[in-house]
Amino acid sequence: MNIFLKRQFYALKSLVIGFLVLAGMLIPFFYSIATSTLLNDNFNSYNNGNLGGQGGWSDDGGRHFVVQDTIKYEGLKAIRCNANENYPEYTGICASSHIATGLNDGTQVFWIYFDSSNNICKTTTLTISGDWTGMTTQFAMSGGICKYRLIGNYYSDWLEWNVVFNQWFPVEMEWSRSGNHFRTRINNGSWSEWQPLTFYSEMYNVYMSMSGTNSNGFIDYLGSFSGYPQYGTKFTPIYPVNCEKNIDADLIFDLKGTVNIGDQDPNNYTSWSTHFINIETGEIKTKTENFEVPLNKNNNYFSYDYTNYNALTSGCWEVTYDLTGYNPNTMEGIVVFDRCQEPDKKTLICDQETTFELPVITECPEPEYDVCEGLELAEKWLCEIKNMAKEILFPTCPKILELKNQINSFKEKFPFNYLNAIKNFFNDIRNSLNEEKAIPITIFGHEANIDFSFWNKLGSVGGLSETFSNIPKDFSRLIMIIGFLTWLLYFVRHFF
Amino acid sequence: MSLADLLITLIIWVLQNIIFPILPQNIPALSMDTFNDILGGTLKHNLIWGLAGLNQFIDLDLAFILINTIILAEIIFWGIKAGMFLWKSIRGSG
User: Fold this and answer.
1) Secondary structure of residue A221 in the 3-state scheme
2) Which of A74, A242, A337, B10 is deepest in the core (most CB within 10 A)?
3) Does A425 reach chain B within 8 Å, measured CB to CB?
4) What number of C-beta contacts closer than 8 Å exist between A and B?
5) How many CB atoms lie within 10 A of CB A60?
């Protein structure tokens, strides 16, 4: 009996180990799907004016982009290069660069806006570079049309794209050191062919320039493929079927989650439509309202009064809704309070409350199949076998999403939820500390602030220009790092 | 359905039927709500004010990053040890 049980245990152990090995093999596969992004920046926290010197951005010989808050893809700010941008020796030319942590394989998205009334795009150069080499996506007028080309080891031909003016569009660049190549996708079109590029190091520098005195250009949201705000094109909540006789009350909508400036889709204004469908005749009456974003954060309610909507004075109507151009990254859902009455100015009574969760939009990776046509017999077989293997080994989109959801569920379980709470606690303290400049105190009934601003004044220390605060801070950093290394040594000893 | 899909189905089944049921959302001694209330209440506010002066002399940003790293690593290590203890208990000494 004992031997039988032991065998069962060993069989179970083999099964578990086998499963873990398989899972271990799969995890790197999933991680390999998501290539890292070189630089994330939305310019929202910068001061208006010269981009150079803010957030790690540098001028290029006096030429620079300008931070502004008029035209932006998301958030509060974007950067511009106007036709009349004027520097001592240049007009209409801007250039800025940023060093980031290097990547052998990576991606980078730029959101671009060509502001032009005469369909002229600014000559725009977007370059990701490392030591001695770089890859460029360049826009320019060619034959009277705004075209683009790719520059790696060679210059590609000028290529046409789905040109848009006065509208934001993404430029996505992807590179691979192991493959010695890069490619680009403009405005959600098809990916370009891979372009050869010799690597001598990781790619670490982002360079952007615009020139031309006939039009204006804007750049916003440098980030990842799936990281940029994606707006739901259309979301129709499944609403319980009602037969409304003479709709005579307010509808109140409560946006759930954080609603900020920039939460509306700039190309397709966020709007909420209420459709009334006549059950007897099939006639549809639609009322559409645009969100007035930013809404007051403390009061995200907005209401529409259909009491006097004469179109519905008779008949039996079903109600459905459409939400377009929402931002699923910040908005979580919407609550509709239905058939509300306001007996007095302080009271609101609603018959029905329905919550709609917004669907999350996620891009799924697709396998890239090799082109087997035109190959010789053996090569063709190999190519087809390779494609077949990709088809077998590549998970489908719903399965990836299902797994992501399951992994996200871990966040709600002990100990991950407690750890997250602790992490958020420390992060909140860190962020709040950065805002504190002075400490209020009361001495003998007099209120005053202890002001540490002198710490940030520059002084000469050992011939170098340093702020006073750097001296004790550097010393404390040294002590902390030594302390951390001591703990690390102790910790690593657990395993040996 | 591809082979990868089957494998994911298996992983999801293990997560749903074996791992999630044994992971609680709250620990009895300190529920998540109470824990959040403690952290988000006056404790945080007082700490921010108390540390605001210290921040002028010490790089608290770095300190918190290191403290976070140490707490996380120690808890994960404790979890692994607990798992190994459970496994050994089930398996027995033979």
Assistant:
1) strand
2) A74
3) yes
4) 141
5) 16
pLDDT tens across B56-85, in order?
Answer: 778 887 888 888 888 888 888 888 888 888
- The Cα–Cα gap between A351 and A336 comes to 11
Which of chain B's residues have a Cβ under 8 Å away from the Cβ of A424?
39
Query: What are A251's two structure tokens?
Result: 């509808």
Among A58-72, A153-167, A276-290, B12-26, the range scoring the smallest mean pLDDT is A276-290
Angle between helices A416-435 and B42-54 (to 10 degrees): 50
d(CA A283, CA B25): 49
Asked whether A290 and A234 are in contact (CB, 8 A), the reply is no
Determine whether the interchain pair A413/B72 forms a contact, defined as Cβ–Cβ distance below 8 Å.
no
Task: Give which of B8, B9, B18 to mutate to test A binding, by max A Cβ within 10 Å.
Answer: B8
Mutate to test the interface with A, among B31, B45, B55 (most CBs of A within 10 A): B55
Helices (H) and strands (E) in chain A, counts: 5, 26
Q: What is the pLDDT of residue A350?
A: 61
Predicted local confidence at residue A373, as pLDDT: 81
Q: What is the ipTM of this complex?
A: 0.73
For helices B60-91 and A416-435, angle between their N-to-C axes, nearest 10 degrees: 170
Q: Which of A420, A493, A430, A494 is nearest to B72 (CA)?
A: A420
First and final C-alpha spacing in chain B: 42
Q: Specify the pLDDT at position A24.
A: 42
Distance CA A63, CA A86 (A): 9
How far is A183 from A429, CA to CA, in rounded Å?
42
Q: Which structure tokens are listed for A13?
A: 């152990």
Cβ–Cβ under 8 Å, residues A128 and A195: no
A124-153 per-position pLDDT tens digit: 999 999 988 899 999 998 888 899 999 998
- Whether A126 and A228 have beta carbons less than 8 Å apart is answered as no
| Mean pLDDT to the nearest integer, A106-114 | 90
More confident residue, A287 or A6: A287
Q: How many alpha carbons fall within 13 Å on the CB side of residue A271?
A: 12
* Contact across the interface for A393 and B3, Cβ inside 8 Å: yes
Q: Do A430 and B60 touch (CB under 8 A)?
A: yes
Residues 6+ apart with CB under 8 A from A316: A243, A244, A245, A278, A279, A280
Q: Tell me the C-alpha to C-alpha distance, in Å, between residue B14 and each of A30, A31, B3, B10.
A: 18, 20, 17, 6
Judged by CB atoms closer than 8 Å, whether chains meet at B57 and A436 is answered as: no
In 3-state terms, what secondary structure has residue B64? helix
Q: From the CA of A179, how many Å to the nearest CA of chain B? A: 25
Interface list for A 357-416 with B (CB within 8 A): 391-396, 399-400, 402-403, 406, 409-410, 412-415
Of residues A395, A427, A472, nearest to B2 (C-beta):
A395
Q: What whole-number distance in Å separates Cα of residue A153 and Cα of residue A130?
A: 13
Closest by CA position to A203, among listed A227, A228, A182: A182
Contact B77 A413 (CB under 8 A): no
Query: Chain A partners of B94 at a C-beta cutoff of 8 Å?
Result: 2, 6
Do the beta carbons of residue A66 and residue A51 sit within 8 Å?
yes
Residue A284's pLDDT band (cuts 50, 70, 90): confident
